């Protein structure tokens, strides 16, 4: 009889330990190791909360650029791939995004829900904040509204200020260098087209056409030039075309 009581107590002890270590909201966390079946409301799941907060940042400056749209598409695809019924989940995430981008009123409530799910995983919250900042910076302009919404989210999900500042500094440094390289490339493009930034696009286009005609390999070959001159003209024409496309893109033509 005593043995049975001891065994029963041992079993109860194991069950108590399992119950104590079990998190009732584990089904709301994205599983990286295997596909999961959605249980409950996607808006309350980590996946839905991530997309909801991304929507706030993406719309903070009042517009969604092409790069942001591509990043969102990749996000929907990546998150939905962790679930059974991937196509249904992807479409549901899109609906959540469309709904949540309309207002900032519930941002702190969403942060509270996300923090509750990830309270024991600080590094996950830091990585998520890094992803949000990538969304904010991706158009090359970290505006005041985007900065405010990111600061509010960082504070609400309890990411340390030092970590937030480190991430912002890193993105600032990266995009400042990228902008400088772009400026250098544009200067070179105008130089190749024998133009300057103050010229109208019509002037630049005329310069481009003259240079194409002057350096076209077929025209040079027809003039009886040797192969080395033709090869040089081919490389020159490639530079001219690349410069023209870069300027067109910069001028949104």
Question: Could you characterize what this model shows?
Answer:
The longest helix is centred in the last third of the chain and has 32 residues, at 161-192. It contains 11 helices and no strands. It is an all-alpha fold and 253 residues long. Helix 9 runs antiparallel to helix 11 (227-250).
Topology:
Elements: H1 2-21, H2 46-58, H3 66-80, H4 86-100, H5 107-118, H6 122-137, H7 144-156, H8 161-192, H9 201-215, H10 217-222, H11 227-250
Helix pairs in contact: 2-3, 2-4, 2-5, 2-6, 2-7, 3-4, 6-7, 6-8, 8-11, 9-11
Concise overview:
By secondary structure, this protein is mainly alpha-helical.
What is the arithmetic mean of pLDDT?
A: 85
Give the count of helical stretches. Answer: 11
How would the global form be characterised? elongated
Major β-sheet profile: none
Helix % is over 70%
Count all strands and give the number: 0
Radius of gyration over all CA atoms, rounded: 28 Å
Whole-Å distance between the termini? 89 Å
Runs in which pLDDT lies below 50 for 5 or more consecutive residues are 6-22
The run of helices and strands is HHHHHHHHHHH
Strand content: under 5%
Decide which structural class fits the backbone. mainly alpha
Salient structural properties:
single chain; 253 residues; mainly alpha; 11 helices; 72% helix; 0% strand
